[in-house]
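Running this now, will post back.
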Amino acid sequence: MLSSLCRWVAVLIKSKLTVRSASHPQPHALLLATVTLVLSQAVFAEGMWRTSWGISLQQGTDQAVEVSDQTLRIPLKLSAGGDALRVRISNEFGDEEMRIGAASVRLPDGSIVPLQFNGAGATRVAPRSIIVTDPVAHKIGAAADVEVRLYFPERTRLTTFKRLSAAQGTDISAAGNHTSTADFPISQSTYPVFLRAVEVAADAATPGLVILSDTKSAAPDTWVPMYADTVAGNIAVTNRSVFAGRMFFGNDGTSALARFDTDVAATTGATHLLLFVGNNDLIQPGMRGSNGRVMLPPEIALSADEIIAQLHQLAVRAKALGLKVIAATWLPYAAATPDGYAAPHKLEARDRINAWLRTADIFDAVVDFDAALKDPTDPSFLDKRYDSGNGFTPSPAGYARMAEVMAALKLP
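Update: finished.
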């Protein structure tokens, strides 16, 4: 209804507001653009915006990819739908300003619509900051596929990105502005960059769920996309999970405690938080990775009580924002093969932490992934049906089971 109203008023402006010159009448383009922008900002009140897609961003390395006179294309899938959308673009880890020459969004019907910044087609993004586009009034269905395109006319280092196990998620064009071209000429692909969130003007009663987790939730083939598709008509899902992420450890800003303000508190329309994080803080001290090196020194290991205290801190901070907090129990991993992963004291600590997650008063609900995926004959192990083969990572069936269990939970 709102998008229809915007289109109706735009038609009215075009037909009624004219400036007559001596030779011929013509629409007053500047007045049309200004009134349309003011209308869109007024109609889509702040209380209606929900984050329908979002990721956690990290700082690029010294070998970060550079672009110049090139366009980036970032395809993504929304969760909740709405009557309009807007995009949050991030230069959070850039030490230099970022110049965007043009931007657009390709909508589910195939149309490509320019994105504007306070009515302008280009903008400058300050170092270590973000910018929000003007709303695009267009009806967007649940679980919709869209793509955002950004044109960079000058040399730009891709310093703000999402770390994945493979360099995929963003297409880089051949030379030129391809924000409006039907065929996108790909020169290479890289990690998802610069996009922090896509927000939709949804029903004010739509819950906004933020998922704070690690590898088991970060990749496109985990349980989160399946869950988001299942509940897309009712819940806006934002996945702020980090590949190999930790809760406490990490001097690069990727720990859940360090990124809470940007990844949770700053998520537009958030009403609920799912905590499924901390397991890497327990297992990685003293554990050897695939390269044979110890991932974290054993002497800095956290006890079960210390991990519980830090999880409690995350819940306290979420509660202070008015969020409902959901705890997720940790999966079993007694069969994990990496050296030091499944040490007996770590298995005992996991059991103690899970017992607390199930009973702590600070949580509004619990999703028991452990109970859903454990071996019924030996609860320290993953059920073979749900084990990918390494003893700790769920199989596709395991991730599907996690999505099913989460979807069965009625948000408090």
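The longest strand covers residues 82-90. More later if anyone needs it.
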